[in-house]
User: Fold this.
Amino acid sequence: MKNLLNIDELSTEQKLGMLMCARYFHPNDKENLEYTLELIKNHSLGCVQVPLSQLDVMKEVLAVADYPIIIITDMEMGYPNGKLPKIPLMALAACDNDEYYRAFARGTIYEARLDGYNSMWGPVLDVLQSDGPCSVHRHFSDDPMRVARAAELMAEVCAQNNFLTCGKHYPGGEAVTIDLHMTNTPSDVSKESIINLDLVPYEYLMGKGLLPSIMTSHRVIRDIDPEHPASLSKKVNDIIRDMGFDGLCFTDSMAMMAILQDWGEENILGLAVAAGNDIVLPNYRSTNKQSFEMLKKNYYDGAFSEERLNEAVSRVLAVQQMLGSAPDSCEFTDADRIALDNVAKDCITAITDDGVTAALDTNNKKLFVILTDNKTSKEIAGEVCFGKWYNPYNIADKIRQEFPNSDIEFFPEFPSATDNERVLLAATKHSEVVFITYCATGPYLGTDCLTRRAEYVINSLIMSGKVSAVLHFGNPFAVKPLLHTPRRLFGYMMPDSQLHAIDVLSGKLEAKGTLPFKIDFE
Assistant:
């Protein structure tokens, strides 16, 4: 067991270091790495977000840390560097299987611990209230108790393994269709709604003893504090504290434009601590030395009191004590592995007209129109996405196997006039058309929907009466602008789901999934 730090033996600067998560690790900046390792050697760092692409840094951190420092990253869809399936929460929720939730948690811990991580930011406790970019795939449901129950199943496994979880993004209030990575738009959700809807999962987990930490968002809730984002608002943070929460509180990333555009960088770390946050996530574009110097200056300039400092450090040390008694590994069974593999097929969801099956006649000749990217943009594989997951060519090969008499046209997501004419002309030679669509998602994209051009072509053929089905991968809200079709199928965002969904269309597989959100497609 590693050494446990005693707050009475820490200097002021050591205490201040406990409030920071080191996040900057440029591969060519050896000076920054050495500085960070010295902070750890001197017991002057509470938390580190080791880059997933630089696990050599992990080895050096583990070599010098003689206390249970928090080593953390986002694991919303499983451990990003692992070999197990990466599962968006909406796909997991579409299966709504208790054992799948537990297997997901066990697999995440098992793989993360092999690389040295002892904590994760997650599960996401946000209650979906509207469509929004870089958002929908990261939700369990629009039902607060369904969110609470899913999170409970995962948090139980993590608690049994002394693996830190972090409920996010407090306090919710997400009825705004804006990506906070890019900008901030105040929410007009009422305080009453926050308490009676958004905080239901938090209160539920608190009652079960399963909420060791939370992450505050940068969203402004005007009805509570019109002047400050939640991450800088004592009024907002006091709500959950008054409900009895005494766990650790992280800020969301201070690199997000929702905070940087309006507040800059020099003073936000101190403001965040003064508001009740215990660990700050500095802008990852600044070196760890720059961030620590800003935090120290904020304190010595009077941004927050010694009492607030000691309160925050006590919470950090309490979490480190828990992590210090964690087992070396997490049991992960063959049954767990099978459960995770099953998610890709069991999540497939079909919404059909009365009397209409999800399956199509495999003998009749059809035109399959498959949406592709334009081969010029790369999907972002940042903190909350896992990169390239959609493969139209694998889908096409599967269609050729299951529907050998049919034809295929590829259709770029940003089509030219020539592309539009080509697809429409091909449809004149068929009495039945099936569209396979997708949308990319990730921070800084701004949208995760179909393009207006693609929508227009699809709707043109729907109006002809030829479109028998739309099969969509990604945000299910993306197909809401489309006119009515007798079949809408959803494969969410898993590579294997793309093949299983074609099996549903061919009648080889039953669509067992249920849409996790209420969406009015009419």
Observations:
- The first strand starts at residue 21 and ends at 22.
- The chain is about 40% helix and 10% strand.
- The radius of gyration is 24 Å.
- Confidence is low (pLDDT under 50) at residues 376-383.
